[in-house]
Design goal:
NADH Oxidase; 7-stranded antiparallel sheet; 9 helices; 9 strands; about 35% helix
Length: about 250
Amino acid sequence: MKNLEMERNRYFLKDSVRLELDFSQTAQNRGVAPPPLQKPCLEGIPRIALPDGNETLERLGGKAVGECILQRKSVRKYTNVPLTLDELSMLLWATQGVRKVLGPECAMRTVPSAGARHTFETYLAVSRVDSLQPGLYRYLPFDNALAQLRLDDNIGYEASMVCFGQKFIASAAVTFFWTTLPERMEWRYDLAAHKVIALDAGHVCQNLYLACQSIGAGTCAIAAYDQAGCDKLLGIDGKDEFTLYIAPVGKR
């Protein structure tokens, strides 16, 4: 990610007068090929096919949208009941599902994103999901599958520790870790990308709240975490890709 202080100095003058960005110099306008819409998955990594997320959303989402909005709240206490693979697939679809691919630089998903650039990758610390062994996974929305990155019976505890020991995270059935690859947004918006990346994260997590509410589950958005610890847990470099937002999920 480009240096934040450089961004501030370029975007604002010292007297707070707005400095306009020159969007004619973005990578897109210079004819640079866009970054891939999904982070490549290394060959040989096991993949688990997921049920159709749209179908499970229609089948499992029994509550009306208005009811889910009215009842939405942060939940920090979870039962030991596991999520089903159908339920997890529905939550993934609701937060990052691909509705339509418009081209190599643009795809429509179930959440809004500036310029449909969608910079996020979804990692899952799975503790209790039927049909899945505990461990770390990455969602592959364009393949409707999970990449099994590693098996780890202690993944829930490890997720808690990189969030400054917040104990309730360790009791979750699964914890969502959203990372960002800023280059995807910078390709179109240059230094203006960083603001809309942060806004996009809110869209994703709100959909998770409402989708959880519809299946009798709960979540709690987490922004207090050890940046280096989270990035290390997920196996990412912390520069070109880094953790941005976290949300544990469990049955209420």
